[in-house]
Structures are given as structure tokens and as C-alpha cells.
Amino acid sequence: MNKYTKSVIFWTLAAIVIAVSVFIVIQGAEPSPYSGGDVSIDEITESDWSRGNPDAKVTFIEYSDFQCPACDLFAALTDEMMKEYGNHVNFAYRHFPLKSIHPNAMPAARAVNAAGQQGQFFEMHNLLFLNKYHWEHENAEDVELAFLEFADELKLDSKKFYEDYNSKDNIQSVENDYNNAIKVGLTYTPSFFLNGELTRMPQNPEAFNKIIRDAIEAVE
Amino acid sequence: MLLKLLNKIPNWLIWSMVAFAFIGMIDAFYLTYTHYTGTEIVCTIYAGCNEVAQSEYSKLFGIPLSLLGTFYYFTVLFLSLLYIDTKKHIFAVLIIPIATFGFLFSIYLTYLQLWVIEALCIYCLSSGVTSSLLFIFSMVMLFLCHKKPCQNCS
Fold this sequence. Notes:
- The complex is a heterodimer.
- Chain A is 55% helix and 11% strand.
- Chain A is an alpha+beta fold.
- In chain A, strands 1-3-2-4-5 form a five-stranded mixed beta sheet.
- Chain A is extended and about 85 Å long.
- The termini of chain A are far apart.
- Chain B is mainly alpha-helical.
- Helix content of chain B is 74%, strand content 3%.
- Chain B has helices spanning 2-5, 11-37, 49-54, 65-86, 89-117, 122-147; strands spanning 59-60, 63-64.
- Chain B has a two-stranded antiparallel sheet with strand order 1-2.
- In chain B, strand 1 (59-60) and strand 2 form a beta hairpin.
- In chain B, helix 2 packs antiparallel against helix 4 and helix 4 packs antiparallel against helix 5.
- Chain B is elongated, with a radius of gyration of 17 Å.
- Chain B starts with a helix and ends in a 7-residue tail after the last helix.
- Classes of the chains: A alpha+beta, B mainly alpha.
């Protein structure tokens, strides 16, 4: 085989390998079932942890994880947005603790639910996000102690908080949220649904608020 | 000067460059594809992919970094393959400044993810690893030339 023929074979093989790999990547990256906007998620009901105006035409649902790196940033953005547009938006928070990579996300979700039983869901939600470094890498025992301290800070009834934290209903409720998110096909957090449609929210506060403002203007 | 100093580059070294440039190219291509088609990035290991890939730092002069990355890896891959085919040292020498630039740039991008965007993207971190490896291989190439000056360069 002369050198020229060798070169031709070499480059043809290289081109084939690259072309096949590119094809595989494109096939693998085809839009997943939830990105077409035709996903149906449950509407906000009384069993949801919600804030804002329950009668608002604009609904905003967040699936989030207390240990996810971007979620605290989006929690702050949502909080600011709700201060401004709370009268026009019905916002619900649903748990999607990515258990396999965030071992304390599930306990955190239970702690927030337990605080919710005493009417302080979003207060605990904010405390946990703000003080993430206090608890996210602790072991199971210390993480409970950290949550109890937060409960004290919110002047909750500690005994009731601890009972609710460990109650079967609470654990089941977080599991239900998780299973619901998996069923919908979500793979990342935070995922937002604006008026029932999966929506990418920007990290920039102005752009974030603009999306909500546009949705409000569209219905009012 | 450098051309004359270069020894025959060991096969394992140049094929490692081919392998990692190829992995880097596929990784960057995936991010480019998701960027232009608006596909969600499948991000099961670490949750910040879409945050990073949609951040204001994901573009340079309006061009997505992932596209620039694809070209970067493709160039390294192409040069390595050219060297394997022709055994001309100029192609291997050209890789050295390109890999150095790629490495420095990926340090900057990792810094952005950790301290500015505060979200990590597994595909972007992988790219950091592949560009670091390419840099290390190109430095090994340099080291080998200095250690034993070329006797019979092609």
C-alpha cells in the first residue's frame, strides 16, 4: 500500500468516526419529553405550599432542591419578584430533592414542611437557603440539630416541629412531590412552570421580573 | 529552532492528544447543539448546567463559547491527525501555543463558574479537564525535545 492510499484510508476513517459521533450526540440531545411545552402538571391546590394571590390568573410553580447550587439564587429572585407582584401571582413551591447527589435535601424539605404546619413554610425556606453552609454537609444527626435551631429562631413549637419533621405523612408528602417531578420528566432544579408551561427563568433579576410582568400584562 | 529540537513524538502521546481532543470536541459540540436548538441540557450529575450555559458569560462577542471550544478542539484534533499522517513536526509544534491558550482560558472559565456564576456544569468542567490534559501532553512534548535533542528529524 503506498503512502497516498494510506493517507486516504486514514482520513476517511477519521471523518467517519467524527461524523458517527456527531450523529450520536444529535440523536441523544433530541428534545426530551418535557421541553416541548406540552407537559401537564397539576394545578396549584390547597395541598400546595403557596403564597401570593390564590385567585390570581398567573400561576408560577417552582420545583426546587434546598441543596442545589443555583436554587438559593433563584429563591432570592422569586422572593423579590413576589414582593413586587405578589398580588397578581399565585406561587407554589414543590419539592424536588435530588436525593442521589444531595443527601440533606430530603431532610431539608421535611423541615420546611414541618415549619409549614405552624404557618412558617416560606420563612423556614428562606432561612435554609440563606444558611445553607450551616447544614448542607452535616451528618444526619447534626442536620436535625441545625433545623431545630432554625425552628427556635422562628419561635416555633420545637416539640411539634420535631414530631412533624419525623411524621410519616411529611415524609410521604415530600416523596410524592419528588415522584411527581420525575413523572413529569424533570431532570434538573430549579424548574419553573409559568401558567403550567415549563419556562426557563433567567438569573438576571430584571429579566426574571420582566417574564412575570409580561405574563401578568397578557391576562389583565 | 524548536522544529530541529523536536524528537520523534511517541505514539502514545500523540494518540492521547487525539483521544482527548476528540472527547473535548464532542463535549463542546453537544453544548453548541443544545445552544442553537434550545434543547435542555441533560444534567443529572450536577444541577447547574442550564444556569451556566445560559449565563451572560457563555458568549464572547456574541459567539457562544461552546462553538469556540468546538473549533479549538477540532483544530488540536486536526493538527494531531496531520502529524500522525505526515510526521511533519510543524503540526505538533503548532499545537503547543494553542493548547496553552486553551488551558489558560479554561482556568478563567472554571473561575467564573465557581465564584461568579456560582453554578457548576459538568460538561464545562469536563472541558476544563480535557483542555488541561491537552496542555500537559503538549508540555511533555516540549520536555521530551529538550531532554534529548533531535538526531534525525524528518
